[in-house]
Amino acid sequence: MKKIILVAVVLLATSVDMQAQLVKFGIKAGLNYANQTGSDITINSENYDKEAITSYHAGLIAEIKVTDGFSIQPELLYSTQGATYKNAFEEFKNELGYLSIPVLAKFNFNKTVSLDLGPQASFLLSERKNVDFKESETFEFGVAGGLTLNVTKSIFIQGRYVLGLTEASKDADIKNSVVQVSAGFKF
């Protein structure tokens, strides 16, 4: 009986060790260079030009190894996006705070570099604006693509472009787009 328990403990320990190698958790944070694409905004028959804003993102990641050259990386991020609108007389900033959930397929070229591609769902959590602006959509769907550079086994740097495929506003033809540069740590 003691041998059976010992064998079961050894098998369980081996299984836990193998699972730990298959899934890694981590944190990341970085800068966003965000803009909104689409038609110009018109308020009271005044046209406004759009300019990009610099903002931030931060959150949690999990990397699930499928094969040596392929893994899946779901993330849970808080990301601020939007744009600055201005004309000859005034300027205002429309900043949207999203809970973004990208699920990326990671194609590893080697142990250092990977190509990351996948869909992203975002849920609007906050909206900061200094003008009476049209209401923003509460859900956004987009696609993300970029590269990851593993500096060490635990530290990584990422560059990514996220293109919104759905409208960011209920009454305006605009979509979010953002370039993200991140650094992170995997446990």
UniProtKB/TrEMBL annotation:
<dbReference type="InterPro" id="IPR025665">
    <property type="entry name" value="Beta-barrel_OMP_2"/>
</dbReference>
<keyword id="KW-0732">Signal</keyword>
<protein>
    <submittedName>
        <fullName>Porin family protein</fullName>
    </submittedName>
</protein>
<dbReference type="InterPro" id="IPR011250">
    <property type="entry name" value="OMP/PagP_B-barrel"/>
</dbReference>
<dbReference type="Pfam" id="PF13568">
    <property type="entry name" value="OMP_b-brl_2"/>
</dbReference>
<feature type="domain" description="Outer membrane protein beta-barrel">
    <location>
        <begin position="19"/>
        <end position="167"/>
    </location>
</feature>
<feature type="signal peptide">
    <location>
        <begin position="1"/>
        <end position="20"/>
    </location>
</feature>
